[in-house]
Fold this protein.
Amino acid sequence: MSQTRHRPQVAIICGSGLGMLADTLKCQDSFAYSDIPGFPQSTVQGHAGRLVFGELKGKTCVCMQGRFHMYEGHSLCKTTFPVRVFKLLGVETLIVTNAAGSLADGLQPGDIMIIKDHVNFPGLVGLNPLSGPNDDKFGPRFPAMSGCYDKGLRCLALDIAKQQGVASLMQEGVYAMVGGPNFETIAEARLLHRLGVDAVGMSTAPEVVVATHCGLRVFGLSLITNKVVKSYEDSESVNHEGVLEVGRLRSNTVQQLVTELISRMEIN
Ligand code: 6GU
C-alpha cells in the first residue's frame, strides 16, 4: 500500500496474449511479482509477471499481466492470493480474461465469449481455493455461486460490442475449467461438449470463486483461440503457439472492449 498512491476500484486479470491492456494504463506504478511478498511467480510463456497500477478512462485500475495456474504446481490458495489482495486494496469489480478452446459449433477461433457461467471441474472434486478453514473476514463458509458473472456487466458488454461493430464476434457461453496442462483427448472433448460446455480452458474458475466469496462483482471474457478436436477424423491439433497467435490477432479488439466496459461501468 505504501508503494503506490493508486487505490484501485477495478482489477483486471489478463489471459494468455492479452496483457497489453496494462500498457495502456496512465500514471503507471508497476511491480514485478518477484518483488511482492506472498506472490507466486508466473512460469508460462506469454505471461509477463507484473502487477500494474494506473488510470484508465478516469477509473483507477490494477492489472495482472500474467496469472497463475494450477498446472504450474501452485496451490489454488496461491493462485488466487492476488484476488484477496485486490479486495483488501478496495477493489469492487474483477475483470478476468482467458484464452479458451471452443466446443460449441457456433464459436470460431477469434470469437469472443462473454462468460455467462462456469463449470469448475477441479472444484467439483474438491480442488477448491476455499478448502480449509474459512476466513470469515472475506466471506461465508458456504458461498452461493449462482449469478457470479454479473448480469449488468454482461449486458453492457454486449451493448458495447454492438457499438464497436464486433457484435458478430461475440456471444455468451459456459466456460469449463480443467486442470491441464495437457489439452483434452477427443473423448474428453466429446464429454465436455455433451455436458453443455461451450469453451474450455485451464484458469479463471478459482479466481472467480474467491472473488465471489468476498463479494466482488465479476466480469469474464474468453478469447476463443482454437476449436477443440472432437472427431477421430480430424488431423489438426492444438498448440500453445497457435493459442498465443490468435491472442495477438484479437488483442486490440478485446482491449477496446474492456476499456469501454471500464469506462461505462458504474462504480459505487
Ligand atoms: Cl483446446 N483446452 C484447454 N484446456 N485450454 C485451452 C484450449 C484447449 N485452448 C486454449 N486454452
Strands lie at 10-14, 26-32, 50-56, 59-65, 93-102, 112-120, 170-177, 199-201, 217-227. The longest strand covers residues 217-227.
